[in-house]
Every structure is written in structure tokens, then in C-alpha cells.
Amino acid sequence: MRVARGQRIPVVVQSRGRRRAGARLLWVCAETVVTCGVVVLLLVVHQLWWTNRQARAEALQQVRILEREWDISPPADPARATGAGGPSRTPDSSGTPDVPDESGAPPVVSAAPSTGPDSGGRGPAPSAAFAVLRIPRLGLTVPVAQGVSKRSVLDKGYVGHYPGTAAPGGTGNFALAGHRNTHGEPFRYIDRLVPGDEVSVRTRARTYVYRVDQVLRQTAPRDVGVVRAVPRSIVKPSYGYDEPGAYLTLTTCTPEFSSAYRLVVWAKLVT
Q1: Is 262 noted as a catalytic residue in this protein?
Q2: Catalytic site residue from 161, 206, 228, 262
Q3: Is 253 a catalytic residue?
Q4: Helix, strand, or coil here: 29?
Q5: Interval 83-99: pLDDT, tens
Q6: Domains: count for the chain
Q7: Which of these is catalytic: 161, 179, 183, 206?
């Protein structure tokens, strides 16, 4: 092909602007992904590390405060507090509080007051710590507070006492709930408990010792039978009891980092 003298050949030049815009878009997308990743990582660190650190510190401080008060001012009349013939016995509670949902759904609980050797005829003030739970096998020491509210009890690293269930040492079911993960996670390893393990509950009046008897490793969140006065699972009826007694129930979510099911440990009063 011949080009006439003086005639110009057109040259197509690609726009650099388009390439720059594309590179800028990719950079913005990359920055957004990295920022989201950092935010998610910080949230995970906050939930799995900081909430545990903060809640454990607060819980241990509360244990020290309680035990210091009890050591300084013990009951004026221990025999009266526990009964001259040993722990007093109370009627079975008719309340059937629901097993708390750690996913955030509020539990349905009975408003009946707790009664027993350490109730003084009335239950502790809502969210107030009134006992110290110890599980030697797990190296666990944690305060017990009234109620199972996440914000005012469980998220503080405390163990919560189901309203309407028995007081420590009383006839019936002294039922407790605690987080499996985050916020101090006091019940993270209760799946390691086996029959024969001892659990103690100290109050101002005295220390009660329970012995682990049964472990229900998985049941439905709404299995209210496990916290009744005579505990028996309504989902798995082969687990539980038929006769009145002095029981301790520990409940938490399972499997770890999930609230799909509930793990239940039952113990019987020894002393």
C-alpha cells in the first residue's frame, strides 16, 4: 500500500485515563477488604480475649469482696441460719425457668422468690452476688449472682442463679447458668466433670458441698425440666431424678461457640 506524499497515517493511542481509573478502583476495593478484615479481627480479639480478661478480673474482685466481708462479719447465729438440726428443708419450687439462650434471646423465668437455708426468707437482690462457687477439678472460683440476665450477671463473668429455684443447701434444685465462651467463660470446661467430682458453694452462713452425679451432654434450649425442683429432662427422660432431694444444676451452651444446645451437669448435696 502506497501512501501519498504528505498524507498522514492515523495512529490510535489508548487512553491512560481509563487504566488509571481501573487501578484506582482496584486499590479502593483492596483497601476496603483490608479494612473490613482488620475490623473483624479486632471484634474477634475483643470477644475472645478482652471480654474474658475484663470479666475474670471483675469476678475475682467480687469473690475477694464477698469473702472479706464474710470473714470480718460472720453470721451472728450460725445455728439459726442453718437450723439446729442441719440445713432447713423447703417446699419444692413450682417455678420452671427456661434455660438461658446465650445467643441473646431473653430467658423466660419464674418470678417466685428463692428460699432455703441462706435466703433469710427472701431471695437475694436482683443481680447481687451472694455466693462463691468452686470446682476444684477445673480450678474454677466464681461469684454466684441472682438472676440470669446477660448484661447484669452473665456478661460480668458471674454465674447466674435461676429465679424460682432453691437456695444453696435447700431441698429442691439450686440451678445455675454460665457462659461457655467469652465474658469470663466460667463454664467452658464443665463438660470435663465426671460423677464423683466435688463442687462447693460458699455463702455467708456456711459452705455446702455437692458431688457430681449425672452429666447430660446435649439437650434442647427449651428443656425446662432440667431446672425443675426434681430435675428431669423432658427431651431425654432417661436423664434426671424421680425423688425430691437437694440438687445442684449447672447449665451452659454447647457445642463451644454455639448456642444450638444445652449442656447440663447435676450434683447432689453431700454436706
Answers
A1: yes
A2: 262
A3: yes
A4: helix
A5: 333 333 333 333 445 55
A6: 1
A7: 179
